[in-house]
């Protein structure tokens, strides 16, 4: 029985819109039994055949979690049994974590004696390639320790067996990308001759320790680089809009009652009644403006008519035939 991956694939018909026509498919892939075994050319040290004892075989058979490793042992040499993988664990065994929960990322390697490991170039991404966050640089130093601190060795089997288990890891507060429920982590694992050279992350980028490279054949030489990755579902209760909608639509959610203090004359109006009230007020305002305009125009008309009645008139006296010249009388205002 090999490793099984189960993935829920959301088929969105439009690039930007989610519609009722979108479909969901569950895809299950079963990996071959030797999928975790390393085929790195760096593991070329001369190794003697491993002779598994009956006691070791019984121990594997008694533990369900080690059955897969026993079936993956397709080679009798330590080089053929080497494998590397990543694990992401939360506080519970449900396989889900919540935002802010202490989460541990572990990178485990089963390698022959004489090899060391170092984790570098860790990246968190949303799985679609749209958003990513760099966590560790090419030297294994953290970009932001508040997001992910430096990887520390947790277990290193120093027994005299041909295969040794090496575990490095770090604990961080779980985070997620907007509109994505799955956090993907991808790191580079360096295989070194002997033990990898540790970098002083506080020394700065100009340090000679960072820029130094081991020559071929020296202890600490980087022989190969492997990529390890895994993902975990991250929940954000009370943050996502979907969670808020489901809470509002649930039967358990009841709208809190509004209690007014005694003696308060505050009254509430629904949106339709509020719109009607504003409409009535607007109509009253327009009527007032119309009345004011009518009064103003009527007053101006009355004033103009009075001015016409009180206009000036000139009394004209004809020349008398008995007078030898024409007499021009002054203008006389005749009042009616």
Give your account of this protein's structure:
The chain has 336 residues and is α+β, with helices and mostly antiparallel strands. The chain folds into two domains: 4-198 and 216-249, Immunoglobulin-like (Sandwich), CATH 2.60.40; 269-336. Helix content is 20%, strand content 28%. It has five helices and eleven strands; from the N terminus they run ββααββββββββαβαα. Strands 4-11-10-6-7 form a five-stranded mixed beta sheet, with no helix packed on it. A four-stranded antiparallel beta sheet has the order 3-5-9-8, with no helix packed on it. The longest helix is centred in the last third of the chain and has 39 residues, at 271-309. It is elongated. The model is unreliable at 46-76 and 312-318 (pLDDT under 50).
CATH topology heading of the largest domain: Immunoglobulin-like
Computed over alpha carbons, the radius of gyration is 45 Å
Low-confidence stretches: 46-76, 312-318
Number of strands: 11
- Please give the CATH class of the largest domain: Mainly Beta
Supply the CATH superfamily name of the largest domain: Zona pellucida, ZP-C domain
| Shape verdict | elongated
Termini separation: 126 Å
Structural class, by secondary structure, is alpha+beta
- Bin the helical content: 10-25%
Which strand-content bin applies to the residues? 25-35%
Number of domains: 2
How many separate helices?
A: 5
One letter per element, helices H and strands E, the order comes to EEHHEEEEEEEEHEHH
Mean pLDDT: 75
The main β sheet shows up as: 5 strands, mixed
CATH architecture type of the largest domain: Sandwich
Please state how the strands of the largest beta sheet are arranged side by side.
Answer: 4-11-10-6-7
Protein name: ZP domain-containing protein
Pfam family, one: Zona_pellucida
Domain ZP: 1-208
Keywords: Disulfide bond, Membrane, Transmembrane, Transmembrane helix
């Amino acid at each position: 029985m090999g490793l099984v991956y189960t993935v829920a694939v959301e088929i969105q018909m439009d690039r930007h819109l989610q519609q009722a026509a979108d479909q969901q498919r569950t895809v299950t892939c079963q990996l071959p039994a030797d999928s975790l075994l390393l085929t790195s050319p760096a593991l070329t040290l001369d190794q003697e055949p491993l002779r598994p004892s009956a006691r070791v075989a019984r121990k594997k058979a008694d533990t369900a979690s080690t059955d897969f490793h026993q079936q993956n042992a397709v080679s009798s040499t330590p080089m053929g049994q080497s494998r590397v993988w990543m694990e992401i664990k939360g506080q519970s065994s449900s396989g889900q974590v919540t935002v802010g929960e202490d989460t541990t990322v572990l990178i485990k390697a089963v390698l022959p004696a004489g090899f060391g490991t170092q984790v570098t170039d860790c990246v968190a991404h949303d799985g679609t390639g749209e958003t990513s966050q760099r966590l560790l640089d090419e030297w294994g130093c953290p970009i932001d320790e508040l997001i992910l601190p430096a990887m520390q060795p947790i277990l290193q089997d120093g027994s005299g067996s041909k295969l040794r288990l090496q575990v490095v890891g770090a604990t961080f507060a779980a985070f997620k990308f907007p509109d994505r429920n799955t956090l993907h982590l991808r790191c580079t694992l360096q295989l070194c001759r002997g033990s990898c050279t540790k970098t002083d992350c506080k020394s700065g980028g100009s340090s000679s320790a960072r820029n130094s490279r081991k020559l071929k054949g020296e202890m600490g030489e980087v022989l190969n680089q492997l990529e390890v990755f895994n993902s975990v579902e991250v929940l954000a209760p009370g943050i996502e809009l979907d969670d808020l909608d489901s809470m509002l639509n649930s039967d358990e959610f009841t709208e809190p009652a509004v209690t007014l203090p005694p003696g308060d004359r505050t009254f509430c109006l629904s949106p339709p009644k509020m719109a009607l009230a504003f409409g009535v007020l607007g109509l009253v305002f327009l009527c007032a403006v119309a009345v004011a305009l009518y009064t103003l125009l009527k007053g101006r008309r009355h004033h103009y008519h009075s001015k016409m009645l009180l206009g000036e008139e000139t009394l004209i006296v004809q020349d008398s035939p008995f007078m030898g010249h024409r007499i021009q009388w002054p203008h006389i205002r005749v009042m009616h």
